[in-house]
Amino acid sequence: MTGFFDRTHGRPSWRKAGRDEGFRIVGQRGRQWDVRRLNRHWGQVRIPKVGWVRFRWSRPVPKGVKSFRITRDRAGRWHVAFAHIPGPVPAPGNGEVVGLDRGVTVSAALSTGELLTAPGLSQSERRRLAYLERKLAGGQRGSNRRGKVKTAIARLKARDADRRKDWCEKLSTSLARRFDIIRLEELNIQGMTRSAKGTLEAPGRNVAAKAGLNRGIHRSGWGLLARRLEQKAPGRVEKISPAFTSQRCSACGLVDRKSRESQAAFRCTACGYACNADVNAARNIAAGRAVTARGGHREPGPVNREPQLLLPSA
């Protein structure tokens, strides 16, 4: 409570089973805890008063680690995490710049023309999740059977989160290794995913559609991808204003909402340039160009002296 009133910590919560399960082991007098590798996929760590415990060897354990944490998630899985902050990914030094446009249908579109989608649950897994959620709604609270259903739901959702996290980790590492500068849109994800249900006095509109959009945004991993890029490539990630990047032609610079024929199709009404709409937006982001609401052109760094053709848009 002292930390809460000093505004250094959040408000303490009551102990609840299944939430924040785990403990931390800290070395004494600078001593490193015993960790050894058994084979290619398995290792062992020595836990006081427990003994040697096997764990899945997912990556090399750095030297000099003096503490680790044992946790249990809601899916019933135990994890061991060694306290170590990895260094940034070195820049390739090729001077190349890439633009990244994040979306719901296409999770990440690159200015190179690549269209990437975050993996999720398969169709059969989604059907099973819906079945388990219906079964959970009709179960008796506090019963063992309902607890087993909750665990099964948590395992499916953990599988979905693991696939999304793995995709973000691999993509962020690949971009940090391939490009010197990574540019993406500056999005207020927290504001974009805010609930639209409103209040009793002023209820919201299209609440179900907005909830589906929020789930799609979270499923695409927008925030996780941006955060991991900034951590792996510090100082090499630039955020560009998203204003009119999807309506601007990356070839001639015309801004016209009629050029965006559909979600996936873009055809400039002036020069006839056609390509995928998300790739066109990613190329505008890579160029570092943003059009303000008043129709002015803004570009970081030196002022671009090329003539720009801008049309007013609604």
Describe the structure.
By secondary structure, this protein is α+β, with helices and mostly antiparallel strands. It has three domains: 14-82, no CATH class; 97-239, no CATH class; 241-298, no CATH class. The protein contains seven helices and 15 strands. The protein has helices spanning 2-5, 123-137, 144-178, 189-192, 207-220, 222-232, 277-286, and strands at residues 21-26, 35-37, 42-47, 51-56, 67-72, 78-82, 97-102, 108-110, 115-116, 181-185, 237-240, 265-267, 274-276, 290-291, 297-298. A five-stranded mixed sheet has the order 9-8-7-10-11. A three-stranded antiparallel sheet has the order 1-5-6, with no helix packed on it. Helix 2 runs antiparallel to helix 3 and helix 3 crosses helix 6. The longest helix is centred in the middle third of the chain and has 35 residues, at 144-178. It is globular and about 75 Å long.
Number of self-contained structural domains: 3
* Main sheet characteristics: 5 strands, mixed
Query: How many helical stretches?
Result: 7
Q: Termini distance? A: 51 Å
> Overall pLDDT, averaged?
86
Give the % helix: 25-40%
Q: Low-confidence parts lasting 5 or more residues at pLDDT below 50?
A: 290-314
- Which structural class fits the helix and strand makeup? alpha+beta
The geometry reads as: globular
Counted beta strands: 15
Report the C-alpha radius of gyration, rounded. 24 Å
Run of helices and strands:
HEEEEEEEEEHHEHHHEEEHEE
- Biggest sheet strand order reads 9-8-7-10-11
Beta-strand percent range: 15-25%
